[in-house]
Amino acid sequence: MTVTSAAVRELPLIGEVLADAVHRCQTVGLDGGLTAYVVEEPGKTLTVSAHHRVYDALVPVTTQSFGADMTPYWAQRSKEGYLERLAEFVLVGDENGAFVGWTGHHLLRFDEHVIIYLDSTGMVPLRQSKGTMRKLMRERIVHHVLPQCPEHLPVYLTARTESPIFYRLMLGLTDGGAVFPAPGTPLPEGVEKCGVDLATWLGQRTILEPGTLTLRNAYDTLDELYGELPTTGNPELDAMFRGTLGPLDAFLVVARMC
């Protein structure tokens, strides 16, 4: 179901969403008068009441971001314990304190490797395409996440997405490193194993096509994820997404960081 602008609720205020917890957040100043509020281990540091407010607030913010009704998505994610499982959740506020963006990640330690899984990221349309989220995510990954990872294991940055725009963001986060799947390029063995481990952790191993890192019907709680499918203007990249994925499919995107 595509949502028109008239159906989008007013954006909530971060101070009201986090309440007293806002004073315990690390804050990071961003371009354009934006501020990031970093909540480490939200499952431990936020009350259950705060979790409910965050889930409620994410509905209008993500509905604006994706152009489709995200109510069923967050109903399902709340049942799965999205916030409870995250290593870090970041809310982005504008100069008036309105909630305009978000990102979160998990840090998954396996015997063979470590997986940083970026789990839901976005900005409302007026704040998109300015590089703000890429800068924020890179700062958090490079300076706060990678130092926590053991030096003797490979570390993979990963996400689940059907958006070539997010894929392009991943390219920026890796500082020019290889991102998979890539057009016309076979998967390295370690990348495929990472994808299998991640799909298993997500509970989606049975719908993964390992050789292409494709998840079939990955978003089965939605009619569609995007009101209008995004494109990058890069014909090869756009064709990889549109030629492989159906409306509810996704790629597991994997990049080795070290």
What is this entry, summarized?
The protein contains 9 helices and 9 strands. By secondary structure, the chain is α+β, with helices and mostly antiparallel strands.
SSE topology sketch:
Elements lengths: L13 H5 L7 E4 L5 E6 L1 H4 L2 H19 L4 H10 L1 H4 L2 E6 L5 E11 L4 E10 L8 H14 L9 E7 L2 H10 L15 H14 L5 E2 L4 E2 L19 H10 L5 E7 L2
Parallel strand pairs: 5-6
Antiparallel strand pairs: 1-2, 2-3, 3-4, 4-5, 6-9, 7-8, 8-9
Helix pairs in contact: 3-4, 6-7
Protein name: GNAT family N-acetyltransferase
Largest sheet: 9 strands, mixed
Helix segment tally: 9
Sketch the topology as an H/E string, one letter per element: HEEHHHHEEEHEHHEEHE
What is the C-alpha radius of gyration, as a whole number of Å?
A: 17 Å
pLDDT < 50 runs, ≥5 residues: 1-8
Protein name: GNAT family N-acetyltransferase
Note down, in words, how this protein is organized.
This is GNAT family N-acetyltransferase. The chain is globular. Helix 6 packs across helix 7 (164-173). 36% of the residues are buried. The chain contains nine helices and nine strands. It has 258 residues and is of the alpha+beta class. A hairpin with a 4-residue loop joins strand 7 and strand 8. Strands 1-2-3-4-5-6-9-8-7 form a nine-stranded mixed beta sheet, with helices on both faces. Mean pLDDT is 92; it is low at 1-8.
